Structures are given as structure tokens and as C-alpha cells.
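User: hey, got a sec? need Riboflavin biosynthesis protein folded
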Amino acid sequence: MKDNIKVFDLDNNQIELSPKAVSLGNFDGVHRGHQKLMKENIKISRNFGLTPSVLLFKENTKNILNGEKEYLTSLDDKIEILNDMGIECFCFLEFSEEFKNLSPREFIKEILYEKLNTKYVIVGDNYRFGKMAKGDINTLKSYEEDFGYKTKVVDFELDNGRIINSTDIRKMVKDGEIKKANFDLGHPFKIKGKVVKGAQRGRLLNFPTANLMLNFNYIKAKSGVYFTRVRIDKESYFALTDIGTNPTFGPNDIKIETYILDFSKDIYGKNMTVEFLEYFRPDYKFKNAEELIEQMKKDKTRGYNLIDKYRKE
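Assistant: Yep! Here you go:
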């Protein structure tokens, strides 16, 4: 991340009063609609000498309100993507009972005005806030004079008129439609975790794999084999990643195993990011190990044939 990043925990009274343009929302996936909103934030910030900022909840509000458990991006992922886009200031809040009971006016006064010194609010056209989600874009506009800010509303419509949203993208990932998901995201769907020791069955098959233990409850991609790109110690490599239960060898828990092409380093205990590029095939049950090895060789060849395509991106 860039050196100019600023992080403030508003629950611990880390108030930051430089004049800001503040984007509001959950921003799961930081998809192309969100990116459109952030570009508007950065443009406004440059034009009016403001700090490009976002207000983020420490936990996605839909988890608390609707019981959703799996997401496209962790809080750290959001910070990384948004900072790369040019957002400099990140302010965090707990979606607590006290916060949920703030009226729309109290949210504007106590958070946007008193704690953030907001001069511009940038939101999607369906943004809701305040107790019982009674506040909307018209509410924001109605208090502009009282609290000295302006409101900019951005739609999440693509060039073809289709509205983009995180719910649809999560479904694409679960259905294995990874190329569609990546198009709507504007970047590859990725997961992060630590490399841990597994059964080491892949090593015996001459396809040693890195087993990933996730550090966040990411949306579960469809079981099967993917062409991926992994990042370890700031270096990137192309790979094949299998999500599944290894059905050829009997019932097992779902695992995430990655065979990194042309790679032989010891990476146990290392943090690894896996970016999903293409879905290859389901997680078949083969008759024997030899049949599995033959299919893995075909997957490997197919992967090599895609490297030049993705190296240019």
C-alpha cells in the first residue's frame, strides 16, 4: 500500500478533521460500480482540495442485519484495493446497537460533521442509512445547508445499462462463472491465507500442492480446478488451484490446494494470495491415481497455454 494512507478508528475517538470527500457503503468486492463512485470521489477531492476518504464498518452490515456470512472481500482487501485507486483516508466504525439506533440526522451530525469534517458525501443511488434505514439520498441532500456539505450520487450502471451489484457477483463465484465475476469486479476474485501442511498426496503424484488456510470467510467458489495466479512475498506465479474434497481418494473435507507452475520453493507458513482467472473443470472422481495424473497433465498444459494471455494484463 502507499505511504500516504491514513487509518482512524472512530470508536476509539481517533477523530480526523481534515476536510474530506467521504464515500459511504459496504463496498463488498469493490466492483466496477464502486470504482465508478471512488473515481468521482477522487475527482471531487482534487477539484476542492479535500482528502479522498471512505467510512467503512469493521464488519459488513449485512452479516449483522441479514445473517450473511460470506463475502468477496475482507476489510484489509477493501483497504488495499481502494488505496491503490487513490483513496487516502480510511475511517472505521463498529455497527453496534448504539450506532444502529442513530437517526439519519444524528448520523450526519455526529459522524459525518463532528468526527469527519465531511465537505462532500459520495454515495450510490440506493444508499440507505440511519435507524431502520430511514435515511436515503434525499435525506442527505436535505441536511446539506445545516452541516456544510454537498452530496454526489453515483449510479452503478455499466455502459450496457446493466446494474452491477455484489450479490450477483457472489452468485457468479459460487456458480464457477469466474470470468463473468472478474469482469463485473474489474479485477480478479481473490482469497488470502496461510500455506499449511496437508496430506502431501500431491507430492506423491509429482504434483506438489500448497494447502491454503483462509484468513477470512470468503464466498466459497464452486468446487473444481481453476487457472490462478498466486502472490507470495510480493512475487507472482501462475498456478492450478483445486477446490474440493479429493473424491478419488475417498471422503474428505473441502480443501484449497494450489499447484504452482515451475516452482519449487518451501513456502510453509507463508501468506499467499490466490487470484482466480478461469474455471477449468469439476472435481471429478477418477478410477485410480494414474487416471488422475493424466488429467492433471492436461490441466497443466492448458494452464501453460494461458500464461501469455494473462501475463499481458
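Quick note: The radius of gyration is 22 Å. Let me know if you need anything else on Riboflavin biosynthesis protein.
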